[in-house]
């Protein structure tokens, strides 16, 4: 699944006085910076005024157009949750009642405070009682239905070699943070010292035997795990991350971990087949487990249970979690309002600074959201645009000078097979049998987590269900899922100002059109292209196709890796390759579709700007945003999307149409000679 973040637009900015210049002055563009030059820093030219007027709020790691749309969607969900909580008693068995009760439980801070750490005490007692590595592995097996942590994560998803079936995936885990710098800068590093303090603090609060004394050992254990683990960039190679094993093969390859006990506790006794995502790390982590003293492993397990549960426990521990994860690592100054955390917990939303992506009752909230807030006309308008973009991509594939004939035929079949899903999924979770109580937040979280895992286990032995989405309708986002050959656009994405039927064609194609193009292009990025017309991962490119694709991709890796997101902080061109291919391809396709929509007529000049100028400015506007330096540092290491200015500037300079629109000449800082512009799609 590939996800586009950083989309969205606002329309509430007053228009400034129109400018005369054919070469475009940002003075005529709302939110632009008239002092910036389009051909030196297009991002700043298009967005500088807005950035200056919109500093980062204290409770966020960044602020962007995406933030604005996420906030708009959160406000709508908030209204739904408040209403549901106010009327829940009258329909105690219905899903709306569950939504209301969960929200009310999260908002009942007095009760949460009074309970302190007591709700987690039984889990900590189970860890304390574990007398062997085998017993501890059984607790890890229950990580998907409790607050226990695990060194290995289990998930159920369509089999990437046979997407009609589902498969069980086993992946490296066990770290308290995605921030590798935390581990790799060594014992003396400042972040490591912070982490040791945090681990020790939680263990001490919980009254763990020895207090926080084992914290340095726990951090060192995790540092070894981090050193063994693959990075997000490593995992872009689909051929490396699909390694089916039988249970005996796994036990032979990764001895040292009691796999049978682990799987049995996960509800998977006698499991026959598991797809290992990272074989070498799994082997090494299993060996670490065997070689680490049991008291360290138990302290590690206790810390992770505390860390996982922190957001739903009393302030003493919830605040410590915020202080470390959000303040120290991301630079956020104060927690978001309680209700926003509740929205995230109940409804998900996929917002970057919020925790959960699907939420405990996300599909139920989605049905309420769509009923109240989604305009079905938006679906028809978007569907028309999508077909425009699909037609342009088809033309590009047909005209491609670098693909072999067999690869071209397969690519065309694949593109034709893609389905488009808009607004709300046909089916979702119904939460039948799930008990939600207003007076038991901790229990609500564990029960809804267990419900989701039981649902996944039931799916493991059934054909893959293509009606299900990996996002909820109230999430502001879109994605391309190659095994199902589908692109999905959520209801929350399709609202003004991100999507507004009243926009003129230039804004429409440059804005939502470039997002559609981005999602379609993901089908043929460095990862997506591995999947064939049937959604199966297999080798269908010729050796020469591979070589030519990789040459082009390598140029992009180099170009983006040279871009500084802040002084001394460079983009990782490998990690962001797929998103960058999708950005450039999407912009190119949207531009061609925009030109085609004019049918040879000239676009009107609006506020002194030509249609082509407004097209590219609209593209840049959707990607307006800035972030705290700590958040930027973390994102550069883990987020596959190139941040803000680099994202916009590198994309436009690879698209020919931008040069004519802004009279960009060879002496300009952003100028790329035509032969150095990368055209994959
Ligand atoms: Zn994307």
Plain-language structure description:
The protein has 681 residues and is α+β, with helices and mostly antiparallel strands. Helix content is 50%, strand content 8%. Among the domains are: 26-68 and 375-417 and 495-676, Collagenase (Catalytic Domain), CATH 3.40.390.10; 118-313, Neutral endopeptidase , domain2 (Neutral endopeptidase, domain 2, Orthogonal Bundle). It has helices spanning 42-53, 65-87, 95-107, 109-115, 121-129, 133-141, 181-184, 190-205, 215-228, 247-253, 259-265, 279-291, 294-309, 315-330, 338-347, 362-373, 376-399, 405-417, 441-460, 505-521, 543-561, 577-597, 611-622, 629-638, 644-652, 656-661, and strands at residues 2-3, 62-64, 152-159, 162-172, 243-246, 273-276, 419-423, 478-481, 486-490, 564-566, 569-570, 625-627. The strands form four sheets. Strands 1-8-9-7 form a four-stranded mixed beta sheet, covered by helices on one side. A four-stranded mixed beta sheet has the order 3-4-6-5. β10 and β11 form a beta hairpin. α3 runs antiparallel to α15. 51% of the residues are buried. Zinc ion (ZN) binds next to β1 and α22.
